[in-house]
Amino acid sequence: MKTLFAVISILAILHVLAALGFVGWMVATERVDRERLEKIQTIFEKSVPDAKAEAAKQQKIDDAATEQAARLAALQGRSAGPESITQRLVAEQQRNEITLRQIERTREEVESLQRNLQLAQKRVEDQYAQLMDEKKQLEQRLAEIEKQRNDEGFKKAVELYESLPSKQTKSMFMTLLRNNQIDQVVAYMEAMEPRKAAGVLKEFKTPDEIAKAVELTEQLRARGTDLVAATEATP
């Protein structure tokens, strides 16, 4: 009996020594300190059922706090909701106004282009009408000239002007020009022999006469009669 008690005592001492050795090793290797020992002590202070009950209680507290936070966030969302909608509506209205202004500006540009096109078309039509009127007048004038050329009186007048000295013919032409009969003078000079007509032009010497000679020359050139070369060739 004593032997059994001694064995048990020795085993108990060995367990204590082993535990102390393990604790010493934990401390020596810095795997445990005072704070960890206190935590371990706290763990073993309560029984497992008590710890579970306390954990369940803490979970309920946490759940309640989470629910409260969710409700608060929902209330904040509702309070901020109308303001956000208003801001979105204002932003949408501003975008619509910008789009409308762009459309209006495009419409004005199109209308301006249409007006310019209409004005350009009207100018073209007016110019065409003017050209047609000038063409008609020219055709009438040419018809009159052709008629004059075939007229016996006109032919005799041309022959007379060609037979007279150039200075005298010039004087007779100046009389017609003073009476605004430049077309008649042009017709006579156009029908005359070019050298004779050029000789008559050389007699236009005063500034007023020279101006008339230039005008006659231009009108003759417009009708296809160029007396410049003939004038240069006339002695």
Explained architecture:
The chain has 235 residues and is an all-alpha fold. Among the domains are: 72 residues; 81 residues. The chain has nine helices and no strands. α5 crosses α7. The longest helix is centred in the middle third of the chain and has 103 residues. The model has no long low-confidence stretch (mean pLDDT 77).
Keywords:
mainly alpha
Envelope shape: rod-shaped
Main sheet record: none
> Kindly, what is the distance between the CA atoms of the first and last residues, rounded to a whole number of angstroms?
180 Å
Uncertain residue ranges: none
Gyration radius from CA atoms, angstroms = 63 Å
The helix count comes to 9
| Coarse structural class | mainly alpha
The level of helicity is over 70%
- Helix and strand pattern: HHHHHHHHH
Number of strands: 0
Quickly describe the structure:
The protein is mainly α and 235 residues long. It has helices at residues 2-28, 34-45, 48-150, 152-163, 166-178, 182-191, 194-201, 207-222, 228-233.
What's the layout of helices and strands?
Layout: H1 2-28, H2 34-45, H3 48-150, H4 152-163, H5 166-178, H6 182-191, H7 194-201, H8 207-222, H9 228-233
